[in-house]
Write a structure and sequence with these properties.
With about 220 residues, the protein is α/β, with parallel strands linked by helices. The chain has helices at about 10-20, 35-45, 60-70, 85-90, 105-120, 150-160, 170-180, 185-200; strands at about 1-5, 25-30, 50, 75-80, 95-100, 125-130, 130-135, 140-145, 145-150, 205-210, 215. A five-stranded parallel sheet has the order 2-1-3-4-5, sandwiched between helices. A four-stranded antiparallel sheet has the order 6-7-8-9, covered by helices on one side.
Length: about 220
């Protein structure tokens, strides 16, 4: 059974979701206050977080930022308006996916399952680019002996590019692989992920932008 934490101040949302999630062997816990939730994440182990943007005390963006300081747990953000800028900000802060409200519970479960499956079903392969070493089996990226923390989406993107080295992957191909569902695709999300990944890799020429086509990982 996988443990999911819902951080949303809508107290009426949690109970029906708990019952629905149980059909898919997902245990849902919930917190209405983000500060309480952040403290709970330090004490308990969860497989994924569902984080609403509109929260008391601090908003979901600030909560995401604080969570990322201590954990690389997958995060799905809920945005009431579903505006592109809200999604982009969430992705820039380290969220792995987003879902506009109102949403269908089945779609939320599909996104959760895809992220959890992606985290499990990776081939036992490794790649080396100078000081950088990607160990897919261990789910680690290292620069020499230093581990570079990656979110689930960043790791998924780098692994996908690494396993398709020298092949140009379109934004739609990448989004389809990372999310596993053909819904509400927007290319800006991929651009944000690539930008975040380049910043962490500190080798901006490792991921090449091919204008009008997509992205390609080059090993030099």
């Amino acid at each position: 059974m996988r443990k999911i934490l819902l951080i949303d101040d809508d107290e009426k949302l949690a109970e029906p979701l708990k019952q629905y999630f149980a059909r898919f062997e997902l245990i849902l816990s919930n917190e209405t206050n983000p500060l309480t939730a952040i403290d709970r994440i330090r004490r308990e182990s969860f497989d994924l977080l569902i984080l609403d943007v509109m929260l008391p005390d601090i908003d979901g963006f600030e909560a995401c930022k604080r969570i990322r300081r201590q954990s690389d747990i997958p995060i799905i953000m809920l945005t009431a308006r579903g505006e592109v800028m809200d999604r982009v900000v969430g992705l820039e802060l380290g969220a792995d996916d987003y879902l506009p409200k109102p949403f269908e519970p089945r779609e939320l479960v599909a996104r959760i399952q895809n992220i959890l499956r992606r985290n499990q079903s990776v081939a036992p392969m490794s790649f080396q680019w100078g000081e950088l070493r990607l160990d897919i089996a261990a789910r680690q990226l290292r620069r020499n002996d230093h581990v570079i923390p990656l979110t689930a989406a960043e790791f998924g993107l780098l692994s996908l590019l690494a396993q398709n080295q020298h092949r140009i992957l379109s934004r739609d191909e990448i989004m389809q692989e990372l999310r596993g569902i053909d819904a509400d695709i927007f290319s800006r999300a991929i651009d944000v992920l690539v930008s975040r990944l380049r910043s962490k890799l500190q080798q901006r020429d490792l991921i090449r932008t091919v204008r009008g086509m997509g992205y390609q990982l080059v090993s030099g």
